[in-house]
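Summary of Year 1 activities. Much of the first year was spent building the evaluation harness for sequence design. The harness presents a backbone, in tokenized form, and records the residue chosen at every position. We chose the following record to illustrate the format because it has been used consistently in internal testing since the harness was completed.
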């Protein structure tokens, strides 16, 4: 059996340990949160790029303006972060996700393409 005085010394020696562990884990939690937000933003950018490319290809099929159709399919804030390319009957859309850290936006950029099929006769 451990004497009561020895138990009190151990408790006093460990006082503040939880605070130290909390402070040590806060930066790790912050980094994990930023990483999760970046992945979610990248997934949203991929969805925006895919829908815009498909809208542009549909406009090509219907003899419309593919750039305008792709730009209209993008959400308002994604329009400023998107590039739209036409290569023959293909529409290629690249969307950079919003990011507080600019280098992450380029690293997680999403590109999607859609093909409008063969030239009409």
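For this record, the design step produced the sequence shown next.
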């Amino acid at each position: 059996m451990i004497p009561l005085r020895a138990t009190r010394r151990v408790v006093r020696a460990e006082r503040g340990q939880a605070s130290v562990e909390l402070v040590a884990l806060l930066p790790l939690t912050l980094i994990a949160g930023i990483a999760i937000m970046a992945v979610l933003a990248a997934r949203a950018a991929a969805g925006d790029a895919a829908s815009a490319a498909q809208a542009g290809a549909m406009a090509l099929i219907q003899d419309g303006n593919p750039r305008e159709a792709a730009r209209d399919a993008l959400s308002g804030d994604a329009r400023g972060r998107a590039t739209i390319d036409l290569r023959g009957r293909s529409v290629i859309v690249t969307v950079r996700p919003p990011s507080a850290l600019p280098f992450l936006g380029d690293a997680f950029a999403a590109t999607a393409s859609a093909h409008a099929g063969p030239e009409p006769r």
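The chain has four helices and three strands. Quantitative recovery figures across the full test set are reported in Table 2.
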